[in-house]
Amino acid sequence: MEHFDGKVAIVTGAGRGIGRSEALLLAAEGAAVVVNDLGGESTGEGADTRPAQQVADEIGDLGGRAVANYDNIATWDGGQALVAQAVETFGGLDVLINNAGILRDKMSFNMDESEWDSVINVHLKGHFVTSRFAAAYWRQCSKENGAPVEAAIVNTTSESGLYGNAGQVNYAAAKAGIASMTIVMARELERVGVRVNAIAPVARTRLTEGIAAEFMKRKEGDFDRFGPENPAAMAIWLASPLANGITGQIFKVGGGQAQLLSGWRPVTEATATDVWSLSSLTDARATLVADFDTGVPPFMPPIEN
Ligand SMILES: NC(=O)c1ccc[n+]([C@@H]2O[C@H](COP(=O)([O-])OP(=O)(O)OC[C@H]3O[C@@H](n4cnc5c(N)ncnc54)[C@H](O)[C@@H]3O)[C@@H](O)[C@H]2O)c1
User: Fold this and answer.
1) Is 252 a catalytic residue?
2) Angle at the Cα of 236 (from 232 to 242), degrees rounded to 5?
3) Percent of the chain with pLDDT over 70
4) Residue 291 and residue 279: Cα distance in Å, rounded?
5) Which candidate in 70, 131, 160, 175 is catalytic?
6) Average pLDDT of 266-283?
7) Is 175 a catalytic residue?
8) Residue 10 CA to ligand 1 centre (angstroms)
9) 163 labelled catalytic
10) Is the predicted pLDDT of residue 5 greater than 90, yes or no?
11) If residue 76 lies in a helix (H) or strand (E), which one and from where to where?
12) How many beta carbons lie within 10 A of that of residue 104, not counting itself?
């Protein structure tokens, strides 16, 4: 008995990289998988049916069940058609892994409109549209059965969005939005029986080969710390009943590390005795920023217990 026997899963952007590993692992664990991929360039241009088809065929050759889908998840119709295909082909939906992504890095002062729009669309809208139609499906199932479903969404955010990487204002804004959407949808779907979590992966894929190929190279005698199988395992674990009770959370995974990340929270507080003014805020400054370095924050905050 595997962990996903009889279950149906969608993985977006599953033709390559982390998504491909996620689709293969889900299938190995018994799920029927809809392998979505538009098949474009890493910058989002173009389309090609082969990446999704190859992964679906690979799963079939290994004795699993999969079907390819080539929809653009950055469109309303594409997200809707993807969810509909899972339900029509395999008779339901249990897991949605939102993973598809592109990069068009520029410093903010050099970024043009298409670089902003395309990255925001693929990541932020691409996560929302699929989730919206999956959520509507699960809500309907739960109403009809008079009981919560047992379903899961796993989103893909990034340390770039959570810590703020220079040169990626479009990507970071989208990924921070995805982190926020993860918490919102976890709250909205709790009663429906859907857990919503996110991973912040670090892995060797075509998105990182130009930036960190040397750093992510497999070291002789070591396990493959930056192989895409590592974040895939975390995503599939979060989607499985082994992670029951975990929702609205974000886990970094890569380089041999797994970390639970915690977001914005109050760290100091000053209280007003009258309407805030520049003068009273200056008086409060010592209380508000007392022990904090309030310059540009470090990219990788240390672990806090
Ligand atoms: N690789 C890393 O270290 C890393 C770090 C942080 C976050 N991520 C995130 O992980 C996810 C997977 O990235 P990857 O590194 O495996 O890259 P990848 O380029 O290998 O895979 C991404 C896949 O998404 C597909 N895709 C892009 N736009 C699409 C669209 N509109 N509709 C359907 N499919 C589309 C691409 O064709 C591609 O096959 C992305 O969301 C990325 O931002 C990766």
Assistant:
1) no
2) 140
3) 100
4) 21
5) 175
6) 96
7) yes
8) 15
9) no
10) yes
11) helix 76-90
12) 20
